[in-house]
Structure formats: structure tokens, C-alpha cells
Amino acid sequence: MPAPKPSRSFSIDGASVLVFDDKIDACSAAADRIAAVIRDRVSASGKAVLGLATGSTPVPVYDRLVEEHRAGRLSFAGVSTFNLDEYYPISPLDPQSYRFYMDRHLFSRVDLAPNRSHVPDGTVPEAALEAYGRAYDGWIEGEGGLDLQLLGLGRNGHIGFNEPTELDLDRALALPTRPVKLHPTTIADAAKDFGGEEHVPRRALTMGIAPIRSAREILVLAFGPNKAGAVSGSLLGEVSARVPGSLLRPAGPRVTWMLDPEAAAGLDRR
Ligand code: F6R
After folding, report:
1. Which residues form a coiled coil (predicted)?
2. Fewest CB atoms within 10 Å of the CB: 111, 173, 179, 230?
3. CA 55 centroid distance within chain
4. Model's pTM, two decimal places?
């Protein structure tokens, strides 16, 4: 199947914004871009390094990558992956853990080596969390950095679990991978998965703003009317840690926003 084309495209502050007819088209285009990066990087250097996201948004991306793999058109043999985040504390065997999600949607369905898929570990001892975050960033650097980072966007504008804060811009842009407290909006949005807000872990480990921004290419996916405010706040509002998605705007890697018409609705006023 050829890659679906966006129905509209424009640029904001150097970022490409692609609006597709629906989220399946956007996810297919994102998967095709990821597959192209894997093929190019593996043929050029023998390996490709991906930053991956969980949540409801990228599920069709992983389905299409699996289809490509099953059709014999895509191998993950040279690929390493680093996921954005994980609840804390949580067991990798817990069906709500992001490790479980990744195994279910991608890792167990493709030929990715088990020691090349990295998801922050929700079982790290409390006292080792900060050191673990630094080590995670070191592993990414040791692989030569991320060729491509896939992102979703929280309703409150979070990327990974970098939640809105009052930090000044320089400090926000330098945030490393670390333990964080989840924002009330994030806890409310996760309640359906955990069978009630009271069961949602209050903390998480998240890749920081700095390692996310150091990726050579970033794809941000956002769909549905619930994301319209976070999308317009990220792309048209002030660049500020209060809307973490806006931190992708200061000059950096190539950023492409892939949206459906509902999520893009707030951009029409630009
Ligand atoms: C998940 C992640 C989060 C989600 C965001 C949107 O790994 O990093 O930032 O991308 O919360 O979640 P969904 O896709 O469920 O709307």
C-alpha cells in the first residue's frame, strides 16, 4: 500500500505540520517514515536507533510496522529501541506497564533482539532512580543517539511524562531522563486503563526533554478533539515549560507533526 498523503501541509517555526484525513492515514505515514529510517540507517551504518512511545495514539503505527515485517519487507535485526517512559513502581509483567504494552504491540511480533529493546525499568530500587535515569541517557548516547523519536502528546501538552512545570526555559530544555510525579490530568486519563484513578501509579520514569530533543528526527502524533488545545498551545503559544510540546520548537532536529483534522482544528486561526 502506498503511503497516504496529507490533505494539508504547512510549516510553523520550521516544523512541518501534516494534516491527514484520519488517524489511520497519519499512522500509516508515520510507520512508513520509521521503516524508511530503519532501512536507510541499517544500510548506511548497520544499525538504526529508535525512540518509541506508548499510549493509544501509536497502536496503528506498530500494527503497520508488524505488517511490513510479516510481508518480508522490513527487518528489525539491526535496530535498537529506547522507550520514552514507564510508570513507577510497576512490574514489567503488569498488563498496564509500558514494557508489557511494547511486548504486545511490537517487540514480540518482530525480529528485534531482546537486549536491544529498552523501556525504563519500573522495578529499579528507589535509591537508584536518579542514577538509572543518567545511565539510560548514557545508553542512548552510547548507541550514537536516536535516529528518530516517535512522540504522542498528552492532553496537558506533556511529551513522554515531562509534565507542565514552572521551570525557566534553559532548565526545562536541559531536563535529563529522571523520576517524575504524574500530573492530575495524566492520572485522570490513565484511570480507565487501571480501573480507577486510585490504582494509577503516582510516579513514573521519563526520558528527559534534552535526550528527546537530541534525536535527529522527531515525529509527533496527535489525534482527536481532546488534543486540539495541546497542539495549538505547543505550536502557536509561548515556548514554555508550561506546555512541554512547545519545547520542541526552539531550533533543533527536524520535527514533523502528524495530525488528524480534529487535533489540527486550533491551528486554523494562525
Ligand atoms: C507514552 C507517552 C505519553 C503519551 C501521551 C498521549 O509513552 O509518552 O506522552 O504519548 O500521554 O497518550 P495517548 O496516546 O494515550 O493519548
Report:
1. none
2. 111
3. 9
4. 0.98
What is the mean pLDDT of the segment spanning 38-53? 98
For 207-261, the pLDDT digits (tens) are 999 999 999 999 999 999 999 999 999 999 999 999 999 999 986 779 999 999 9
pLDDT in tens, 145-187: 999 999 999 999 999 999 999 999 999 999 999 999 999 999 9
Average pLDDT over the chain reads: 97
185 touches 141 (CB < 8 A): no
Strand, helix or coil at 264?
A: coil
Backbone angles phi, psi at 137, to 5 degrees: -65, -35
d(CA 84, CA 120): 7
Identify whether 162 is a catalytic site residue: no
Which residues have CB under 8 Å from 261's CB, separation 6+?
7, 19, 21
Rounded to whole angstroms, the Cα distance separating 37 from 23 reads 21
Given 163, 189, 260, 262, the catalytic residue: 163
CA-nearest residue, atom 8 of ligand 1: 160
Residue ranges and CATH numbers for the domains of the chain are 8-264 (3.40.50.1360)
Pocket of ligand 1 (CB under 6 A): 53-57, 84-85, 152-154, 158-160
- Within 8 A by CB and 6+ apart from 231, the residues are 153, 222, 245, 257, 259, 263, 264, 266, 267
